[in-house]
C-alpha cells in the first residue's frame, strides 16, 4: 500500500497520464534480503558549497546544485539505518585505472573528456559526509550502470541479496541505468525519493515516475526504515 504522500512528479503529469499510470500502479515490493546501493555520491556532484545548479556548474560541471545538498541529510539517515540493521551497504564510483585516450570510455557521452574541477583532482573521491565506512563494499565502474562490467552481481549473489534500495545520482543517468539492469537481472528494486537527485529537475521527476511505473518501487525514506530492520 502506498503512503498518503504526493510524489515529486505530480506537478508534471496530467489527468490522462494519471489514468494510464493507475492501471500500471502495482508495487512489486522487496524480498527477503536487502542491500543499500549508494550511487556516485562524489565531490564533483556537490561542489564546495550549496548553491543553485546554474552557478555550481560554472565551476563544477558535474554539480547537481541545491538538490544534491538537500539529499545529504536523508541519505545519511538511510546509511545510518543500514549500518544499524546490519544491512549490506555498497558504494559506487568511477574506475580510477588510467586508460589510453583512444580506449577511454565514460558513463555518458559528455564526460568522455572529463576535466577535474577540484584543484587537488578529488572530483571523483567520495563526498566526506556520505563516504563509505571501513569494510563497506566499493564498486568501481566505467559506464552509467553499477552492474555493467563490474563484479556487483557476484557480490550480491554470494551475499544472498535479492533486493536493492538505491540512492544517489543522477536520477536520469546512473540511477536509472542501474535500476534497469537490476530489474533485468531479477532483483527487486526500490529508489528512495528523498535520497536521489539530478541536476535537471524535469529529468528527475520524469525518470522517478517512469521507473516507478516500470522497473522499481519509488519509496519515501520512512517506508524504507522498517524494511531494513525486517530484512536484517
How do the strands and helices of this protein lay out in sequence?
Elements: H1 15-24, E1 34-39, H2 43-46, H3 53-59, H4 65-70, H5 72-85, E2 88-94, E3 137-141, H6 152-159, E4 163-169, H7 171-184, E5 188-197, H8 201-214, E6 217-219, H9 221-231
Parallel strand pairs: 1-2, 1-4, 2-3, 4-5, 5-6
Give a description of the structure:
The protein has 232 residues and is an alpha/beta fold. Helix content is 38%, strand content 16%. The chain contains nine helices and six strands. The chain has helices at 15-24, 43-46, 53-59, 65-70, 72-85, 152-159, 171-184, 201-214, 221-231, and strands at residues 34-39, 88-94, 137-141, 163-169, 188-197, 217-219. The longest helix has 14 residues, at 72-85. It is globular.
Number of helices: 9
Cα end-to-end separation: 22 Å
Mean pLDDT: 90
Shape: globular
H/E element string? Answer: HEHHHHEEHEHEHEH
The Rg value, from CA coordinates, equals 17 Å
The largest β sheet comes out as: 6 strands, parallel
Low-confidence stretches: none
Structural class: alpha/beta
Number of strands: 6
**What is the helix content?**
25-40%
Amino acid at each position: 500500500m502506498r503512503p498518503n504522500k504526493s510524489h515529486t512528479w505530480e506537478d508534471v503529469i496530467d489527468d490522462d497520464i494519471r489514468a494510464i499510470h493507475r492501471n500500471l500502479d502495482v508495487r512489486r515490493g522487496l524480498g527477503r534480503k536487502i542491500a543499500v546501493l549508494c550511487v556516485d555520491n562524489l565531490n564533483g556532484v556537490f561542489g564546495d558549497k550549496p548553491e543553485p545548479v546554474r552557478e555550481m556548474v560554472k565551476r563544477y560541471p558535474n554539480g547537481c546544485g541545491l538538490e544534491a545538498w538537500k539529499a545529504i541529510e536523508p541519505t545519511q539517515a538511510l546509511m545510518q539505518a543500514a549500518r544499524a540493521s546490519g544491512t549490506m551497504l555498497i558504494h559506487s564510483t568511477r574506475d580510477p585505472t588510467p586508460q589510453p585516450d583512444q580506449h577511454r570510455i565514460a558513463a555518458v557521452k559528455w564526460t568522455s573528456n572529463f576535466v577535474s574541477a577540484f584543484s587537488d583532482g578529488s572530483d571523483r573521491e567520495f563526498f566526506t559526509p556520505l563516504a563509505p565506512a571501513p569494510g563497506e563494499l566499493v564498486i568501481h565502474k566505467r559506464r552509467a550502470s553499477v552492474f555493467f562490467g563490474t563484479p556487483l552481481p557476484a557480490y550480491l549473489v554470494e551475499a544472498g541479496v535479492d533486493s536493492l534500495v538505491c540512492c544517489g545520482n543522477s536520477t536520469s543517468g546512473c540511477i536509472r541505468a542501474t535500476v534497469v539492469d537490476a530489474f533485468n537481472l531479477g532483483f527487486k528494486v526500490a529508489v528512495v525519493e528523498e535520497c536521489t537527485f539530478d541536476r535537471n529537475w524535469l529529468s528527475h521527476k520524469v525518470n522517478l515516475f517512469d521507473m516507478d511505473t516500470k522497473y522499481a518501487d519509488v519509496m519515501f525514506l520512512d517506508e524504507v526504515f522498517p524494511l531494513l530492520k525486517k530484512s536484517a
